[in-house]
Here is the input.
Amino acid sequence: MRNVLFGLSVAATLALAPAVHARQADTLIGDARRQNGLESEMSRLRQSSPGSARDGLCPLVRGASAEVNAYVAARLHQVARQAGASYATRACEPNVVVLFSAEPDQLIQAAARAKRFNYSGAPAAAVEAFKSGAGPVRWVHGGDVRGSAAGDARPHNALIVVDAAKAGDVKVSALADYLAMVSLADVRARPAPSDSILALFEAANAAPQALTEADQAYLRSVYRAR
Here is the structure.
């Protein structure tokens, strides 16, 4: 019964997408209080041991409004379940963290000074690209897990930062699918395939507005090897 109720909660949250999009200008860009709350959340995460893919996904979405945070988290759960990924079933340390910020550069710089982001295990080039990136969404995956296969694309420790201003013109539903894709697998195809949600910020109106069959097939292949 608990799983059924949780499933209903996810479905109800996803049904909020049209209303959330209508208020996107107010909900996607964090105000000062929300930014302060984000700093507190990062402080809690400092030096904590990340969860692992073996224990199941343990996501954390912060920085936007409660509605947007909940919608993105619910969509992430739905996509993960469809891909065959397991979710942590008890208290866990987040291993997939999505942060919205109106000032992502300052957020990342402040976090670096305070050592609030743990980049251990992530390739140096990927970390540098994450820190210096200028795109609407930037992400880095890292953290080796004992027993994981070489080249494993599952998120051992994924950090995703959304520039709320640059992502403000994108539908929340499309953005949530994009975030699910880059959260659940470390994808770096450039240019992004035209038949993928990854083209969302590259092909403007011509880009898919939801996960495509190719995207879903890729995610299933990633988690099929568990």
In short: The chain has a mean pLDDT of 74. The chain is about 45% helix and 10% strand. The CA atoms of residues 146 and 211 lie 31 Å apart.
